[in-house]
Amino acid sequence: MISRFRIGPAVALAFLLLGAAFVLLPFFWMLSLSIKPAAEIFAPGIDLFPSRIEWRNYAKAFAEVPLHRFLLNGVVVCAGILVFQIIIAVPCSYALAHRQFGLRWVIFGLVLAGLLVPYHVTAIPVFLGFAEIGLLDTYPALIIPFIASVFGIFLFRQFFATVPAEIIDAARIDGLSETAIVWRIAFPNAWPAVSAFAIFSVVAHWNDLFWPLIAISDPNLATPPRGILFFRDEEAGSDFGPLMAAATVVTAPLVIAFLAAQRKFVQGITMSGLKG
Amino acid sequence: MSSGRIELKDVYRRYGATTALNGISLRIAEGSFTTLLGPSGCGKSTTLRIIAGLEPQSAGQVLIDGRDVAGLRAAERNVAMVFQSYALYPHMTVRQNINLPLAMRNMNVWQRLPLMDRLLASARDLAAAHRTKVREIASLLDIETLLDRKPSQLSGGQKQRAAVARALVRDPVAFLLDEPLSNLDVKLRLQMRGELVDLHQRTGRTFVYVTHDQAEAMSMSDQIAVMMDGSIVQSGTPRAIYERPATREIAAFVGDHPLNLVEVPARSRELPEPFTSFAFDTRLTNDTVVIGLRPEVLVPADDGLLAGRVARIEYLGSEAVATVVLAGDRTIRAVLPTHSVLRQPGDEIRFNFDSDHAHLFDGSTGARLKARLVPRSPLRATATGPVS
Questions:
Q1: Number of domains into which chain A is organized
Q2: Which of A60, A197, B58, B128 sits CB 3.0–4.6 Å from B14 for a disulfide?
Q3: Are residue B229 and residue B335 in the same domain, yes or no?
Q4: Does A102 contact B at CB distance below 8 Å?
């Protein structure tokens, strides 16, 4: 019996380590390539570690394409999307959770149905519409299609449903308007859901390649993944060292942000009942 | 200056096919302590929410100080409410909780912005006045030391005080309290009961109190409105309701001890066992009559007219509750004083009671009858006085 207690966790740990290694291998390979000298990259055989660290790959990455510009674009687009998503989703989900109106359940049903539609489906109509009004190749083109997030509305609605109705009533008695209740009472209490949603949103749109590929052709507006494509298309060609260095730079902010906010993230997911 | 007179005129509330309130009419005098008492689901909380303006009535009028408040939002009616769950804002300190209604009432949008109390002279003056007011209220309720805590760091009683402070701070015309004590433990509930009564006397405001606890209603109120199934079945002083309950249900609902109800045929003035020593003072047309006797009005007496045998004794310290089997195999409960000899199961026992304390109800409708139960022979001459 005693041995079972010892072996059980050991086996679990071994499996977890194996799984983690499997998942992390591409990232590790990326990191490794980004600091390898060019000659070693194409050497036959697989060397996990470079013989010496080649920092010039990073210098080259920043020099050959405006990587800093891509990063800035990523920040502008992700922040723009997130801010508008919250401004729209929070009042909507408050209304769905705490206001009585005729078509409430129909609208909530539509929100749930909206969760099932991948945004690629609407990409072409949106593209054509933007082309018509001359919005392509602008920041708004990258931001506007995503500002009404059904996922955000759903997540916040589930969270607000747990806020007791008595607190909302107390706020009404205390003289808060419905708008004031949304921003002064409901929103500050929803920070776990907000931070979870923020991570989902930023990760999705930072990494998104599909829409920027369609909506943007100006390199100055490229988001990081789109920018890396420019990188490969142009002079660097098959220069994998700087390419991997650029990929590392693009991935790093998300990894760092996740590690910093990991606890809140998990808390937000569990509190809004979005486990598994 | 508004005074807090509230009047409900034939108020209905329907949710689809179900009727939650079935024509409520009630006058609540200025400065009174009125309790809506009733079992859960009787519509008392709905009534309170309609007075507060949190819910619209389907028909009827709500008048506050003679003015129809239909269409006025909760805050515009200037009533304050204390909720069962206290409903403090969890992300704010107690100070911010108490301050919020003041800021919402007295400051405009710009003045309420953060840091404006540093930048804007008008906001600074208001904020200073509010700070003083919050401190005053906090000291009134003895929560000055808790002002910088969050609600999650407070005990139930402290949360209750903070919620009352928040209601009190903006000087409303009426306080609406929705079962405010039911989340507290028994000892604290008794203490808060007293404090609320003190508060009512000190502020002189109208209090409308909702509870299902008849002891709370009896001990605190000037006026009780007993509600059942969406209607007010009786309203009056606690004493009137206790002494002259309008129906059998009300009689059974109020009082610390469960009411004894004995059903007897009523076709003649003579009564069967165990009431053979009594008679109705008038001839009744009902088929059956239910005699309601409170356990506490039965006085043990050697020459008592109601005879029985003790089946069980529950000793409670200050009193003992005896379960007594009367002649005719009717079982009743009686409250016995414990300062005299304590009865034992099997003992013979006889009771007397003041015939004013025997309530008679119609056997089928449960409505109170004007007839009285009077001792039969020796006292007949005096007991059959004029009956209204």
A1: 2
A2: B58
A3: no
A4: no
Residue B294 belongs to what domain range?
256-383
Considering Cα of B339, then B340, then B345, then B349, what sign does the dihedral take? negative
CB A177 within 8 A of CB A91: no
Same domain, A77 and A101: yes
Residues 6+ apart with CB under 8 A from B41: none
The confidence score (pLDDT) of residue A196 equals 84
Report chain A's terminal Cα–Cα distance, integer Å.
31
Half-sphere exposure of B108 (CA within 13 A, CB side): 3
Domain that includes residue A236, residue range? 58-271
Tokens of B59: 């028909």
Tokens at A255, concatenated: 């990894």
Residue A179 Cα, gap to closest chain B Cα (Å): 12
3-class SS letters over chain A: CHHHHHHHHHHHHHHHHHHHHHHHHHHHHHHHHHCCCHHHHCCCCCCCCCCCCCCHHHHHHHHHCCHHHHHHHHHHHHHHHHHHHHHHHHHHHHHHHHCCCCCHHHHHHHHHHHHCCCHHHHHHHHHHHHHHCCCCCCHHHHHHHHCCCHHHHHHHHHHHCCCCHHHHHHHHHCCCCHHHHHHHHHHHHCHHHHHHHHHHHHHHHHHCCHHHHHHCCCHHHCCHHHHHHHHHHCCCCCCHHHHHHHHHHHHHHHHHHHHHHHHHHHHHHHHCCCCC
Contact B100 A174 (CB under 8 A): yes
Q: What is the ipTM of this complex?
A: 0.81
Task: Please check whether residues B39 and B134 belong to one and the same domain.
Answer: yes
B100 touches chain A (CB under 8 A): yes
Residues of B in contact with A167 (CB under 8 A): 87-90
Categorize the per-residue pLDDT at A272 as very low, low, confident or very high, splitting at 50, 70 and 90.
low
Q: Is residue A91 part of a domain?
A: yes
B91 close contact with A: CB closer than 8 A: yes
Q: CA nearest B10: which of B28, B20, B25, B27?
A: B25
- Rounded mean pLDDT for each run of 10 residues along chain B, 388 residues in total: 82 90 93 93 92 92 91 88 92 92 84 76 84 90 90 90 90 91 87 91 92 92 93 93 92 89 80 80 82 90 86 87 86 84 82 87 87 69 43
Q: Min CA distance, A25 vs chain B (Å)?
A: 43
Tell me the nearest-neighbour CA distance from B110 into chain A, angstroms: 13
Contacts of B160 in chain A (CB under 8 A): none
Cα separation, B289 vs B167, whole angstroms: 48
Q: Within this chain, do residues B232 and B295 fall inside the same structural domain, yes or no?
A: no
